[in-house]
Specification:
The complex is a heterodimer of chains A (708) and B (365). Chain A has 708 residues and is mainly α. Chain A contains 37 helices and no strands. The relative contact order of chain B is 0.12. The chains are: A mainly alpha (708), B mainly alpha (365).
């Protein structure tokens, strides 16, 4: 045994083990490695024979026999010592001391305090009296065991080791529990080698199969795996009652696979993988399924991973299984499925939320920009907003940008920057959008903050990279983007940042009952043309999948005519997928109109980008979309957004009186009475308008009241 | 501390200075030579039997009958001390056996303070309570001498060293007794250090100083007296049970405890009397407050002076009687002379007081 200078007591404890090992038999003299001691050795535990010897020395045959019966019941393999008769010879004449008999009885009933009390009492009346040495030793052992157990239960590991040092007689196979506690005390005081020594001693000397297996199970919780593996060599493979340490080996294999399951560079052996497969078959636990799921996920087989995570979900594998399932879907590029699945689990754990946000970001960031169901966007946005997740905000920015919703894109980039000030890609997006919106102040502000840190923003300012065309959705962050902003974001909110709800413009599903003659008029004119050119019966519902591009286009227009816009969308989709470039343009246009008919403005905006459109159509579609958006926002009381949509629309087509009135009322609602007054007066100048007059009166009333 | 005097304001600094000088002189005039009690044989077998049969189990556990029948290091310490005073070596050994095997298991050599028969493991708070440690060590030391039992003396010495090592704490210029090794120091809580003046069991200090002379028992004892004087110099003249020393010389009630002179602190006069420290001026003021004409023994808010609870059990009522006897020679009323055990805590106080009166003031009883 090696002495550790700083822990003499501990070394002494180990020396105590050595001493006990010597006492218990020859087995401990053998080297620990190859030759485990014969079972008979270990089956002879140190039995407390002190009471037995005492009764024998008193010649009390009746009590000797009773004690032998008791000990046999406790230790089935124990055999009574052969020298008992010699003990009784000398003392047979002396009458047994009734007190001592009583003390031993109390001792056997574990009433230790009372034994001590009786001894003390006797010594008070008879100072020369001494308790039998065996009894005192037996008491000390019991007291030591109690203190050791209590200290161990209370995490007082140094006390455990100290007591073990002072009472080495405790450290035997009779007290395997004590040995385990001492082993743990070594482990808890950072002496794993000593822990291993205790377990080694136990495996070499103690016979109980259950305790031997339990020893290795304890080793699994306290020792490094290599040391556990070393202990496996003490498995007894022959004899009457051989060990079966399969469970331990399986656990070690399971752990190896578990480690490799999270590290794509580490591979597990076929044997280890087979063990885990077997564990999956033999139990209903989700644990091994999850391990194998992650192993497949991280080793290029997400399809198998998906299956396994599905099994784990069926086995109540909880959020871990759900995370694996979502990530496997994502790895399989089934992003829509991944988003829908992860959405359901997002509240279950912080990690689940993180995965949902990542999946949603990935969904938005596809190139080309995907066509997303409005309800998908509608559920992504509130989560992103609540979680203030800047990557998704940026992705929403590019998504809006790539679907020609520049103003919304700008708001998202700005939002992303407030959540993550050093996000260069969002700053670049903000620069692009402010430039395209001709927002000079906004553009200059971004450039001023970022030109020294971002070459491409500087290029933009220098006119080297005109902001036209489709931008890559995966924009790598600039390497210099880590530099923090000079000001904290809270103290410098974006100057014209609309209220947060404005972001919902892009993605909100607008359910409107109203129709508007102007846009609808356009649509109807188109439809009339279509009908006159291509008029056919389309009332029979049929799947457009088999149609040629032109036929699908015709069917789409026909469906529009009989006001079945959602079926028309499917037909136009088929035309976009299979038709000529002319048919594709026409179909994208038709699809936008169909969505407008259903008041799905976001979808309309997306559809409009599915094929390049003529300038005329772009203007028309854009104006229609923005009109609907403005009206929807107005209806919902979102006046800032109303004004934003109207302004964007006014950039491409002149604003007619009905929309000017909407603008005026929006100003009123926002308390911008001067602006409202200007607008209402402008409307009045084009001819008398009851609405405009009402607006002007309202302003007078409000401002009049406010002045007094 | 709050001194409210109807005096011109310019006098105040001078008064403060004089006050501290006075206190310092009082404190230094108190030497550690407390008058030791004989203890052994000062409790009658009948009284002890009444106590033992109610509160001590066969396994040596002293049961706090008012607190869910838990046990604590303080109770074990009192049990040992009373067994010694009753000259009951048998019970002493019994109580010690439980104390040793169940509580004296901390790595630092102190006793865990709380043991609950309804819990598993039974130790429900592994922190120590310094008064419990002092009482156990003191009882062991005295028993070791009285009964010539080296096992007790050895254990007393170990514990005394552990107390000195882990519970004596220096803050500013004063050295005091932390109520527990964990959780009360300057770094442990915002208003730390926090003390409990009733943890100074004054009679134990000279005895334990003899067993662990390498620690500054005299200084802790003296600074405890000083802190007691400071804490009783306010308008209400009562110390709170739990006191924050965050402001050095200005002790104030600790956060999170009611600012009360409560069950803890009402032991302080008993400890002072048992240590023979009868010349503390505060004892006279307390005797006045506790007299039958005034409010009697009570739990009192130390800020407002309001009484929250009057304590009428025999074990509390004997405290003013002992004060009146020790200070004025007033005989103890007949009604208090016969032990009528009720709950663990007042019964303990009663026997501690009666043991003192029997030994030092037999003319009162």
């Amino acid at each position: 045994m090696r002495l550790v200078g700083s822990a003499i007591t501990i070394a002494v404890a180990i020396l105590g083990f050595a001493a006990i090992a010597q006492q218990t038999g020859s087995g401990s003299n053998q080297p620990p490695a190859e030759s485990p001691p014969p079972p008979a050795n270990g089956s002879q535990p140190q039995v407390d024979e002190s009471a037995l010897r005492y009764f024998a020395s008193q010649g009390d045959t009746r009590r000797v026999n009773a004690e032998i019966a008791r000990l046999r019941a406790l230790y089935p393999n124990w055999t009574p010592p052969s020298d008992l008769s010699q003990l009784s010879g000398g003392a047979a004449a002396a009458a047994p001391d009734p007190l001592i008999e009583r003390l031993w009885n109390l001792y056997r009933e574990d009433r230790i305090a009372e034994v001590r009390a009786a001894i003390a009492e006797r010594q008070t009346s008879d100072p020369n009296w001494k308790a039998p040495e065996e009894l005192v030793a037996a008491l000390e052992t019991v007291e030591a065991r109690r203190r050791l157990t209590n200290a161990s239960d209370t995490g007082q590991w140094r006390t455990v080791l100290q007591v073990a040092t002072e009472a080495p007689s405790l450290l035997t196979c009779v007290n395997v529990d004590v040995l385990w506690r001492v082993a743990e005390a070594f482990a808890r005081t950072d002496q794993p080698n000593r822990t291993r020594d205790v377990y080694t001693y136990l495996l070499q000397n103690c016979a109980s199969l259950g305790e031997r297996l339990a020893t290795l199970q304890k080793a699994l919780t306290l020792l490094p795996e290599q040391q556990v593996a070393t202990l496996l060599q003490f498995e007894r493979k022959t004899g009457e009652s051989p060990d079966d340490f399969t469970a331990i080996r399986d656990e070690l294999a399971r752990r190896r696979v578990e480690r490799a399951s999270l590290d794509s560079k580490a591979t597990a052996s076929a044997e280890d993988l087979a063990v885990v497969e077997r564990l999956i078959q033999n139990t209903n636990e989700a644990g091994p399924v999850l391990i194998l799921g992650w192993y497949n996920y991280h080793h290029g087989n997400p399809a198998r991973g998906l299956e396994l995570f599905k099994t784990a979900l069926d086995r109540d594998g909880g959020t871990k299984a759900a995370e694996g399932y979502a990530m496997s879907l994502r790895a399989l590029e089934r992003l829509s499925d991944a988003e829908a699945f992860a959405y359901e689990w997002r509240e279950r754990a912080p990690e689940s939320m993180k995965i949902y946000l990542d999946v949603a970001t990935a969904l938005l960031s596809q190139d080309p920009a995907p066509r997303l169901e409005p309800q998908v966007l509608a559920r992504i946005v509130p989560v992103v907003t609540a979680q203030r997740f800047s990557d998704a905000a940026q992705a929403l920015g590019w998504y809006s940008y790539n679907t020609e919703q520049i103003r919304t894109a700008r708001d998202w980039f700005r939002t992303a920057l407030t959540w993550k000030a050093d996000d260069e890609a969002s700053a670049y997006g903000l620069a692009l959008t402010t430039q395209r919106l001709n927002d000079r102040a906004g553009f200059n502000a971004v450039v001023a903050q970022w030109r020294s840190r971002s070459q491409r923003i500087a290029d933009l300012a220098d006119g080297a990279n005109p902001a036209t065309g489709r931008q890559p959705v995966t924009t790598p962050p600039s390497p210099v983007a880590q530099a923090p902003l000079a000001q904290p974001i809270e103290s410098a909110p974006p100057p014209v940042q609309p209220r947060p709800v404005s972001r919902e413009v892009t993605v909100e599903r607008i359910e409107t009952e109203q129709t508007f003659s102007r846009t609808e008029g356009n649509v109807r004119r188109r439809q009339t043309q279509a009908r006159s050119a291509l008029g056919r019966n389309c009332t029979m519902t049929r799947n457009p999948a088999g149609l040629s591009g032109d036929s699908a286009l015709t069917r789409g227009w026909c469906l529009m005519e009989i006001n079945r816009p959602m079926e028309a969308v499917a037909a136009f989709d088929q035309a976009i997928a299979t038709g000529s470039s002319r048919a594709r343009e026409e179909a994208a246009y038709g699809k936008s109109l169909a969505y407008l008919r259903k008041n799905l403005t976001s979808e309309a905006a997306i559809a409009a980008t599915e094929a390049p459109q003529t300038r005329e159509r772009r203007v028309e579609l854009g104006a229609s979309i923005l009109t609907q958006r403005a009206l929807a926002a107005y209806r919902d009381g979102r006046y800032v957004e109303t004004l934003m949509a109207l302004s964007e629309r006014a950039r491409i087509v002149p604003e007619q009186n009905d929309l000017l009135l909407i603008r005026g009322w929006s100003y009123v609602r926002l308390g911008r009475y001067n602006d409202a007054e200007k607008v209402f007066r402008a409307v009045q100048q084009t001819g008398y308008s009851e609405e405009a007059a009402a607006g002007l009166n309202a302003i007078l009333e409000i401002t009049g009241r406010m002045r007094y | 501390m709050t001194i409210r005097l109807p005096r011109p304001i310019q006098l105040l600094p001078w008064l403060f200075a004089a006050f501290f000088l006075l206190m310092a002189s009082i404190a230094s005039s108190q030497s550690l030579s407390v008058q030791p009690l004989n203890l052994v044989g000062t409790i009658s077998p009948a009284d002890w039997e009444a106590y033992r049969s109610r509160f001590v189990e066969d396994n040596g556990r002293v049961v706090d009958t008012a607190n869910g029948n838990i046990s604590h290091s303080e109770g074990q310490g009192y049990g040992l001390l009373l067994a010694l005073a009753a000259a009951d070596r048998r019970s002493f050994e019994q109580i010690w056996n439980f104390t040793f095997t169940e509580l004296l298991i901390r790595d630092d050599g102190l006793a865990v303070w709380k043991w609950d028969p309804a819990s598993k493991p039974r130790v429900t708070d592994r922190n120590n309570a310094s008064d419990g440690d002092l009482l156990i060590a003191y009882a062991l030391a005295r028993a070791g001498t009285a009964w010539q039992e080296p096992r007790y003396t050895t254990a007393a010495q170990k514990l005394a060293k552990a107390i000195g090592k882990s519970t004596f704490s220096l803050s500013g210029r004063s050295m005091f007794l932390l109520p527990g090794a964990q959780g009360f120091g300057a770094g442990d809580r915002p208003d730390g250090p926090v003390i409990n003046l009733s943890y100074w069991v004054f009679e134990t200090f000279p005895v334990l100083a003899g067993l662990a002379p390498e620690y500054e028992w005299n200084r802790v004892w003296r600074d405890g007296v000083m802190l007691l004087q400071q804490s009783t110099s306010g308008r209400v003249r009562l110390p709170a049970d739990w006191i924050s020393l965050q402001n050095g010389l200005q002790p104030r009630p600790a956060d999170g405890f009611p600012p009360e002179f409560g069950y803890n602190s009402l032991r302080i006069p008993l400890y002072l009397l048992r240590a023979g420290m009868t010349d503390m001026e505060w004892l006279r003021a307390l005797k006045q407050r506790w007299s039958a004409e005034n409010e009697g023994v009570a739990v009192v808010n130390v800020v407002t002076g309001q009484v929250r609870e009057r304590l009428t059990d025999q074990g509390y009522a004997i405290l003013p009687a002992a004060l009146a006897c020790a200070l004025d020679g007033t005989p103890v009323p007949e009604a208090l002379r016969t032990f009528e055990p009720s709950l663990y805590y007042p019964s303990t106080l009663y026997l501690l007081a009666k043991s003192l009166l029997g030994e030092k003031y037999p003319q009162c009883v």
